[in-house]
Amino acid sequence: MSPTLETHVTPGAKPPRRHSVHSLANLSTCHISIGLSSPCLQASHNNTSLFPSLPRLVSHNHINSLQAPRSPLLLLLSLATAFASVSSGYTLKNPAFASSSHCLLSISFSPLSFARSYGLYPPMTMMTPSPLDQEEDEMLVPHSDLVEGPQPMEVAQVEQTSTVENQPVDDPPSMKFTWTIENFTRLNTKKHYSDVFIVGSYKWRVLIFPKGNNVDHLSMYLDVADSTTLPYGWSRYAQFSLAVVNQIHSKYSIRKDTQHQFNARESDWGFTPFMPLSELYDPSRGYLVNDTVVIEAEVAVRKVLDYWSYDSKKETGYVGLKNQGATCYMNSLLQTQYHIPYFRKAVYHMPTTENDIPTGSIPLALQSLFYKLQYNDTSVATKELTKSFGWDTYDSFMQHDVQELNRVLCEKLEDKMKGTVVEGTIQQLFEGHHMNYIECINVDYKSTRKESFYDLQLDVKGCRDIYASFDKYVEVERLEGDNKYHAVEHGLQDAKKGVLFIDFPPVLQLQLKRFEYDFMRDTMVKINDRYEFPIQLDLDKENGKYLSPEADRSVRNLYTLHSVLVHSGGVHGGHYYAFIRPTLSDQWFKFDDERVTKEDTKRALEEQYGGEEELPQTNPGFNNTPFKFTKYSNAYMLVYIRESDKDKIICNVDEKDIAEHLRIRLKKEQEEKEDKRRYKAQAHLYTIIKVARDEDLKEQIGKDIYFDLVDHDKVHNFRIQKQMQFSLFKEEVAKEFGIPVQFQRFWIWAKRQNHTYRPNRPLTPQEEAQSVGQLREVSNKTHNAELKLFLEIELGLDLCPIAPPEKTKEDILLFFKLYDPEKQELRYVGRLFVKSSSKPIEILAKLNQMAGFAPDEEIELYEEIKFEPCVMCEHLDNRASFRISQIEDGDIICFQKSPPLEKEEDCRYPDVPSYLEYVHNRQIVHFRSLEKPKEDDFCLELSKIHTYDDVVERVARQIGLDDPSKIRLTSHNCYSQQPKPQPIKYRGVEHLSDMLVHYNQTSDILYYEVLDIPLPELQGLKNLKVAFHHATKDEVVIHNIRLPKQSTVGDVINELKTKVELSHPNAELRLLEVFYHKIYKIFPPNEKIENINDQYWTLRAEEATSIKNTPCARAKNLTKNIPEEEKNLGPQDRLIHVYHFTKESGQNQMQVQNFGEPFFLVIHEGETLAQVKLRIQKKLQVPDEEFAKWKSAFLSLGRPEYLQDSDVVFTRFQRRDVYGAWEQYLGLEHPDNTPKRSYAVNQNRHTFEKPATCLSDVIGGRWKNTSLSTKAGFLLLYHIQQVQGLVKWLVYISELSWCRRTGLLCTSGEPYLGSSPATVMVLSLGGHCNKRRMVSCGLA
């Protein structure tokens, strides 16, 4: 699937100027969201983000060509078009696709930073503080005499990625060149070149424009000196810096760095606005001294490695693993385990046999994988291993938990090693032990428990490095107060609780807790904090403070780093790779799926710490706030090897460690693979000739095929060189089949317009005199490498081959099939030559003889005409000539005995047409119980044209159910291999074929369930899940209410009363709509339930309806059964929402997170907060000590304003009849210590409760991480929705909670309406949010 590119732009006041980064600086914020089918990074930070791992998005004139559209929307579309046109494979496309490998890249960035980071603006300008103001630099472009034309622009990445395009294999040649220009002010030329200097055997020179290249700045470039004489297609890559030296204070020298791929089109590269001319020509500045300017150029030429032709084995000695879709996490783990030689040797020594199959044996699959990693020259596939896990294709596109995979794999291998020579290897390598203890402080009592571990999970959050994590791991917890420890014979005691290590394993696997569950936000989050890890880890530090008293202190626990496994991305997806030192030398290697590259220590360690990184300041002399961005690539697993054991673990593994049967098997596989490769390489020299004979027709018709004559994939084929003469090929046929050359006659097959495939004509003598290649070209219009022939062989009375009869234009070759209605069998009986002028009646006796019937048996003849898209088999008139019936060479005649009338009713398919119709539509369907969707329950042979009633009737008969209407069927999703979310409606499809189609694929699986009532009756009912909150008990029980769709909310309440226990007999219930801890609606009793959606929001029933007694409420019949307090509201009383909340740090501001159960409260005129708090405390039954810690705040638009006890609450709430989550409420701030309610499973839309402030939040699925602010921007969503024949355009402003009314949002961050994709586009156009600006309009 092509990635999807969406952009939205917040324009500033000025239009952009061509070639000037000032114009981009005027755009305060740009947001780009890219939906990818493969894992990618997520990045956003303070409205600016850097994306170093993205491919180069802009080059040449794409940005330059953007003019200044007056309309913001035109500007948006221009940017989107420009980005789409230069992004490899990026297309503007609907992002709402349901794919599990799907991952979203969401980026917010300032155009100025974007320009800097991609070379449009110098990314690493290093200049010391200047006493005078500096103007903003302009974009990095090559020089041009004509500034009006589009100029090339290069993407210069600040942080180099480790792809092979820019990965140096060796240290690049570099040189510093100094150019002293005397009499600088007297230069009269527009351009001025330096002398030629050589770096990396290439000739270079510096080019300057002393008066500026059509700008009021000095322009300076690096130029390829001999570009005009270099051969066609030349290219070279260089990193370089250009500088103007300050001859008074060298620290004020101006230096700018960049990099470029030089070629014939772009033979120079540099900076058009290098520095202002006014500063350069001012002698007091120090750049021009004695009319002399000094320029420096530092050039490093790097080797450019072609991405596609890169050979990992040749460059590094190692090969990678192929990614099956989303198996990069597994690949990184397998590479780590493979490069522990002791582990690899143990795997090789596991007993397997030559009869084992790799896909059914994990040990054999792992042995095979390790062998190929050791001896292959190219990357290795992992399909055999994943199949041995029991994974299907769908599982390979799902990212599994790495730690769980590691543990399961080790447990499987440990189990397989039992009773073998390698038993205990897993424990010897990876198993360590720690001691959990609880020690009483005041009495002599201590409880200990020894536990083993294969890996350790270390906290990242709140820890700066590994040692801090170990400190936290062994941190002593005090059990006191309400949390005292109950000691045997001593009762409750103050105690200390902790963990100490008894021993560490030789191979220490550390899982860094980069992914944690955030209880405040009720979701998983990734911790990108900086976390350092040393290349040598000393766990004996500080006199062994991590060790228990029982630990063996003679063992030195000094470890050296072996592997760093990295995750790049966010919590919703990303990419995994590993940095490994296979021999513990100083050389690191990066194993990134198929590609292996050499890396330095800094790349493997420091750059994987995570945290934030600052971009170098362009003007360090000014007090500019440094631009920081979060690094989303960081280590998540570390492997250390103990120094004292490394010689044992990093051992030699060679072929003698591999079982002989395994070597033989794998060498044979390698030879077969090489044969296939060679076969493929030589395929253009050969032609495949497929020869069908009568024997093939007899073998296949009625068994493998029923229509046409033969399956050519199952006939004998010859691989013949194209230059071989056809006469020589006939000799090959004679050797193979024993048919002399003179008795062979070959017919060419032809595909007819009705899509049938029949022998068309015999080869002519002239054609047989040609070569095989020439004949194939003549006969094959599709130009494939195959030639299909039918070999006609005539047999004499002695069944020996004889010469074929002479064929004239009058002769027709026909093929005959015989049908037996009683046995329901169709078979091939032979072929005949007939005269086109003759009639079928003339050959009846011959046909009876072929069929073994009596000579006078009455038979019926049918012509098999076609079978796609429907069967056409017509009765043949015995007395009409073959010419009149349009019979020709290769036609098929089916015949059968004329059935007696009394037998027609006994036969299911009495004639040839009905039987062929049956065969054509025959479908074997695998039925599975919806409760066990992975297991086949039974199979039925059905017809594709069976109706809905036919299918459910057969299913009911199969399972012994009397009433077929109680069967409900569900179709199969061919992509997820799961049932579709929506079942098939009663008679909702016409035929079985409609049930089995899923997009462009056809399945053979259906799911069934048995209902307690007939499906037509059930479809007339509405099923609602209602969470009932008891008035006096702290419990929530979910009830399923099933009522007719025309029922009302009042009917739901009456039904619920029969199922629940009320606090008192006269208690009344009300029904609320609650979404992420906020009340959105109170349902009036007379509202129809048909349109109520409980799939995404919680329906809450509780005692005591609380609606204000206003004219509006009375008109809507909302005041029925209201408590006295709320019925008797005074004219100045208010009914307000009260919500629980906490605050936490967001991207650049504090964010409010709601939790707990919301409720209504009546406040009276003049009532102070202290009085209101007393009533709230009584209502919630919170102890005084705890309630004293709570804070109260008035919240409007998500912004808290804290209240004092003396404040009059009434004055804060001026508006009435308010139930919107974006409006005002009284907030209670306190920690969320409440247990999750039982209905929490229904709260699966909470991630969309908060409004989105930028597109990265919208597409990235981080709705709840953004806070509501009047500066959030003007959010425009247009959603084209088909509703009752109308196309409605729904426009929402400010807060996305309106979207919940349309079913527009789903948990994955993709827009949906039910199960149908919907189109969403989000634009941030600046301004302030205001609910009154909401627009809604409809178009017919």
Automatic annotation (TrEMBL):
Positions of the MATH domain: 174-299
Which InterPro entries does this one have?
A: MATH/TRAF_dom, Papain-like_cys_pep_sf, Peptidase_C19, Peptidase_C19_UCH, TRAF-like, USP, USP7_ICP0-binding_dom, USP_C
GO CC, one annotated term? nucleus
Reaction(s) the record says it catalyses: Thiol-dependent hydrolysis of ester, thioester, amide, peptide and isopeptide bonds formed by the C-terminal Gly of ubiquitin (a 76-residue protein attached to proteins as an intracellular targeting signal)
Q: Kindly give the Gene3D superfamilies that the UniProt entry links to this protein.
A: Apoptosis, Tumor Necrosis Factor Receptor Associated Protein 2, Chain A, Cysteine proteinases, Phosphatidylinositol 3-kinase Catalytic Subunit, Chain A, domain 1
Q: Name one GO biological process term.
A: protein deubiquitination
Occurrences of domain USP (ranges): 319-643
Q: What is its EC number?
A: 3.4.19.12
Alphabetical keyword list = Hydrolase, Protease, Thiol protease, Ubl conjugation pathway
Class of the enzyme per the UniProt entry, highest EC level: hydrolase
GO terms for MF: cysteine-type deubiquitinase activity
Under Pfam families, the record lists: MATH_2 (PF22486), UCH (PF00443), USP7_C2 (PF14533), USP7_ICP0_bdg (PF12436)
Span of the signal peptide: none
What domain of life?
Answer: Eukaryota
Family per record: Belongs to the peptidase C19 family.
| Protein name, per record | ubiquitinyl hydrolase 1
**Annotated organism of origin:** Salix viminalis (Common osier)
